[in-house]
């Protein structure tokens, strides 16, 4: 896809920016949007991309699935499964790529919007942002990796509270729960996201990707297995061009110039 209908994509050097762009529909995740998001994620999964900023247009980050589209589908179950599959493909790519995913939550994040927001490696939230699961309110169940990420971020008890009661968290509450990295003023969100992306653009992409991989696997590994993975990865990084540059720059007391 060279042009998207439901989102905006821009690549500027090592930084990619994705904007969910259906403001009149609260950035609802339609079949077209999740397919395009999966394609955009694929485009970010390169050795030269070091940071990806994901945000929403208008007042919402995303209100979740496009219920009007779901209701009009001839086979609702099959349609929702296809939408979820594309969304999950995007999330998997974001999780496995070397680039750091920065989610900049500009407004309400509900349902799948909440799920996607907290998949960010770094999560920025505007002061006016809010977070709610909202699935059981319409007789559905969570998707977007919520059942994977939330228990790991906040534990099973708080995850059940969010999923079963549909409690809405303010940006500050989400930060205190450990779901948000940083809360910023509404009018500073975009600038802070860009600043953080530029900071990540100066880092070693391979190191960031390796860290993401270690943390994805940590709860499935025993102590010795995890330490062996750490040993192999640090050795691999030490032999890489970025690893050599990082050590040489430190010893020479100069800023590193990573590839």
Structure description:
With 259 residues, the chain is α/β, with parallel strands linked by helices. Helix content is 49%, strand content 17%. The protein is built from eleven helices and ten strands. The protein has helices spanning 31-44, 67-72, 76-96, 112-117, 146-154, 156-165, 171-177, 189-201, 205-217, 223-238, 241-252; strands spanning 7-12, 15-20, 51-56, 60-62, 100-105, 108-110, 122-126, 130-132, 169-170, 182-184. The strands form two sheets. It has a six-stranded mixed beta sheet, with helices on both faces. The chain has a four-stranded mixed beta sheet with strand order 4-6-8-9. Helix 1 packs parallel to helix 3 (76-96), helix 5 crosses helix 6 and helix 9 (205-217) packs antiparallel against helix 10. It is globular and about 60 Å long. The mean pLDDT is 96.
Roughly what is the average pLDDT, rounded to an integer?
A: 96
Our measurement of the CA-to-CA distance between the termini, rounded to an integer number of angstroms, reads 28 Å
Q: List SSEs in N-to-C order.
A: EEHEEHHEEHEEHHEHEHHHH
Number of strands: 10
Low-confidence stretches: none
Helix content: 40-55%
Biggest sheet details: 6 strands, mixed
Biggest sheet, spatial arrangement of strands: 1-2-3-5-7-10
Q: Which shape, going by the Cα principal axes?
A: globular
So how many helices?
Answer: 11
Rg is: 19 Å
- Computed structural class: alpha/beta
């Amino acid at each position: 896809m060279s042009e998207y209908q439901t989102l905006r994509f821009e690549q500027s050097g090592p930084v990619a920016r994705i904007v969910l762009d259906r403001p009149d529909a609260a950035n609802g995740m339609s079949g077209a949007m999740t397919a395009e998001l999966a394609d955009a994620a694929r485009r970010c999964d390169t050795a030269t991309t070091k940071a990806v900023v994901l945000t929403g247009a208008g007042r919402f980050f995303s209100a979740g699935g496009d219920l009007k589209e779901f209701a009009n589908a001839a086979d609702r179950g099959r349609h929702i499964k296809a939408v979820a599959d594309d969304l999950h493909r995007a999330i998997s790519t974001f999780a496995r790529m070397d680039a750091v995913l920065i989610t900049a939550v500009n407004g309400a994040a509900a349902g799948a919007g909440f799920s996607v927001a907290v998949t960010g490696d770094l999560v920025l939230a505007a002061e006016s942002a809010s977070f709610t699961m909202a699935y059981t309110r319409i007789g559905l169940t969570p998707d977007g990796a919520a059942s994977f990420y939330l228990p790991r971020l906040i534990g099973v008890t708080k995850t059940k509270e969010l999923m079963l009661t549909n409690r809405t968290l303010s940006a500050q509450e989400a930060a205190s729960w450990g779901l948000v990295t940083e809360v910023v003023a509404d009018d500073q969100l975009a600038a802070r996201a860009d600043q953080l992306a530029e900071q990540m653009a100066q880092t070693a992409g391979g190191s960031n990707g390796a860290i993401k991989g270690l943390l994805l696997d940590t709860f499935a590994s025993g102590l010795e297995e995890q330490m062996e993975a750490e040993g192999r990865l640090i050795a691999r990084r030490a032999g890489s061009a970025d690893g050599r540059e990082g050590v040489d720059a430190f010893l020479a007391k100069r800023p590193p110039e990573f590839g």
